[in-house]
Design a protein that fits this description.
Helices cover 24% and strands 26% of the residues. By secondary structure, it is α+β, with helices and mostly antiparallel strands. Strands 8-7-6-5-9-10 form a six-stranded antiparallel beta sheet, covered by helices on one side. A five-stranded antiparallel beta sheet has the order 21-20-23-26-25, with no helix packed on it. Strands 13-12-15-16 form a four-stranded antiparallel beta sheet, with no helix packed on it. It contains 18 helices and 33 strands. It is globular, with a radius of gyration of 29 Å. The two termini are 46 Å apart.
Amino acid sequence: MKHIQFVFIVLFIVLGWQIIDRIILEEEFISSLEIALQSAGSNRKELEKVLYHYQIEPSDSLKYKAACFLIENITFYTYSVGEQLEYYKSYYTWLKKSNGKTPQQVADSIKKIYGPMKEPSKKRDIMEIDSAYLCHNIDWAFKVWQEQPWGKNISFETFCEYLLPYRIGDEPLTYWREMYYKKYNSLLDSLRMSDSLDIEDPVVAANYLISKLPDKSYYYTSVTPYPFGHIGPEYVQYLSGTCREVTDFGVYLFRALGIPCAIDFVPVRSYINAGHFWLTTWNKDGEEYMTDFPQKLRPVRKNWWYRWDDSSKVYRYTFSVNRELYEQMAKYGEEVYPFWRLPKFIDATYGYTYSFKKELIVPLEKLYKGKRKGKIAYLCASDRDSWVPIDWTEYNAGHLVFRYVRKGSSMRVATYEDGALNFLTDPFYIDKQNNETHYYSAEEDTQDVVLYAKYNINVENRFRIKMVGGVFEGSNQPDFAEKDTLFIIQAKPDRLNTSVKSWSDKEYRYLRYVGPSNGFCNVSEVAFYEKNDTVPLTGKIIGTPGCYQHDGTHEYTNVFDGKTWTSFDYSEPSGGWAGLDLSGKRRVDRIVYTPRNRDNYIRPGDVYELFYCDEDWKSVGTIRTTTDSLVFRDIPRNVLMLLRNHSRGVAERIFVYENGVQIWK
């Protein structure tokens, strides 16, 4: 009975009363399959053709069950269509062949050529899908399941959920299975004939397939000309876009060749204002493997990523709706947060719980005074200046418990009422070492804070570390056959501009920065100053031509263009340098250098505003800075802070200030 009630409720959410009113039979006599068929309206005959087709032969009994599984869940899928929408998706083709253009330039070109996007029309699978399409998908899914040697280690339940589905999310309906099979199946020919590899293991097949892909180059960008959703099997093959597009390609590829797989994701990622998607599959013993496609699959329990990342919860997309979860939340009779309204996912956190709290108990004394009306409490993670629910439990002011929560990230608890979050606690985090929960509650004692960045610069460590061992040299010969060392960088820079004294008191005509071995000469800006000068020395820019991108965007000339947001990225790991021909001898007193960066340091001339969290975000005030640092005075201790740049950019992240250092959360 509960199962039938669930179907009625969700059909109301998805389709509305107009269709539900047509279902006039008594609930106890209607199966979920029949409800789906009745909701199909005039398209019912097409779905019944599929069922009849697989009822004729007893050998097709599993195919009939598979058809029932799909039809019961088809109701919950919609997609967008439109000629202009398809034109806009050519963005992903152009991006892979951008020839030096930035993603924003490519997106702007798409908009200019095809005009402003008109709102595409929405269609429902249950109303549109025909028998030929559904049978084609079922037959091809069974074909690869039964013909591939690793198929014998895939259960029917796994097959239905992670190999059979005809779509991933909201992409248009297409015949993709046969196209992918004919294009990529031959890559596995030598594996199927192997005497040394375990050809009955899906993970072995998956890794072999990845290794044989002819093009694994990946163009990452979050820029798009339009918020597409899932872009479909044709365009994901270009491996352009975000982690979602690349992961989608892996799903189509694996499923077309009989390898079951799922998309695991975190709604919000710790330290970064974004979620993340990746591909998961299982070996023949059921052990989970994961990959940031198209990297090699590795066991979840041995993968560096899940040990490093502190995202509080991990989920796995399913094709079927999580009816049990829906019913658990529906019993409270209140509006739930959108993420849980139609839950086509399961909680996969336990598989990734290298460091977790089995029970996260929120003490009564930590709750704000004044009980909220909501009956569901949400565990929220930080996304810039907002909080995003990532887990839920029953709201009981005397006993509030969340289960299997990964440690390390900042969280807080809220109810969801009248379309808004209402917070129950201050922010807090669970310490990985001592397992204690620390709350960020404003103290009366204050401190002055000195800030050098608005975003987590630790994610740029690979740029900063590549300066360690870099050498500044002076010479009076253009080939630097004889040279003196002016300074050697011995620690990664922690701010936009690092100023150091020259070790030499000689005069030189030629000056340069030489990147360390395997550092690709990553540097944004270098300035040489004479004693007491405020304007850097100038001259003819010299250096090693060629950048890693092979498009002229990261050449050595960027090092002396006065722009801290451009950089040099040499085409080779070692041997790169950038310098000046001063046309005359000068003595260098000090050197100022800037690491390659993403423009998240404090930039002189910009206007910044500091906020701290005390139930709500409170502004400390704004400052127009003249240097690469900011000082704010009399800030309460033990609070989360957020620094906003009103002049440019949106990459901002919460932090705390401890022992004179920004610590990103």
